[in-house]
Amino acid sequence: MIIAGVDEVGRGCLAGPVTAAAVILNHPIEDLKDSKLLSIKKRETLSKIIKRDSVFTLASVDNNEIDTINIHHASLKAMQEAIIKLPIVPDIVYVDGKFIPDVGVNCKAIVRGDKLIKEISAASIIAKVHRDEFMKKLDKKFPVYGFANNKGYGTKQHLNALKDHGYTSFHRLSYKGVLT
């Protein structure tokens, strides 16, 4: 049976995309767990192993589309795109959360799946590392917001920068706190 896991990251951020990954593990990988429970170094190491030893895809929906269709639909769209891009059609896709994207493949939603299903954990890890790398690059363009550290979340530094400097073209204007 071919099992895929899918997860997204970046739902609560004030800036940047929401990013999803779909992963089919070719063999077990040690230490897989929810990306939020891993150190940055461990996440980056596991991301390289997952990418080397698994079938995976990534998909992102940018902040402008998030503002247009809302974060719920944007998250589902990113997951849908990641699943559809898989070069192998899985027998089942385990999706982290309560909702499943419309993909024409057998899917099962699993709340806290990133803590329970290794394929979802793997997806969580590579999506997080991919999105974090994007935010680090964005930090070089807009260092005042602290994206390298806060990854777009509403930290004190980020909120103060929004008040002092306004928003960038990467901010989600539909989110509370962005338009001050």
Protein architecture, described:
The structure is a single chain. With 180 residues, this protein is α/β, with parallel strands linked by helices. The protein has a single domain (3-165), classed as 2-Layer Sandwich (Nucleotidyltransferase, domain 5). The chain has helices at residues 40-53, 63-69, 71-85, 113-116, 118-141, 147-150, 156-165, and strands at residues 3-9, 18-25, 54-61, 92-96, 107-110. Strands 3-2-1-4-5 form a 5-stranded mixed sheet, with helices on both faces. A hairpin with an 8-residue loop joins strand 1 and strand 2. Helix 1 crosses helix 5 (118-141) and helix 2 packs across helix 3. The longest helix is centred in the last third of the chain and has 24 residues, at 118-141. The radius of gyration is 16 Å and the shape is globular. The mean pLDDT is 96.
CATH fold topology: Nucleotidyltransferase, domain 5
Superfamily at the CATH H level? Answer: Ribonuclease H-like superfamily/Ribonuclease H
Helix content: 40-55%
Oligomer: single chain
Proper CATH architecture:
2-Layer Sandwich
Order of strands across the main sheet? 3-2-1-4-5
Strand content: 15-25%
Tell me the number of helical segments per DSSP (H or I, 4 or more residues long): 7
How far apart are the first and last residues' alpha carbons, in Å? 51 Å
Q: For the residues shown, what is the average pLDDT?
A: 96
Query: What number of structural domains do the residues give?
Result: 1
Rg estimate, integer Å: 16 Å
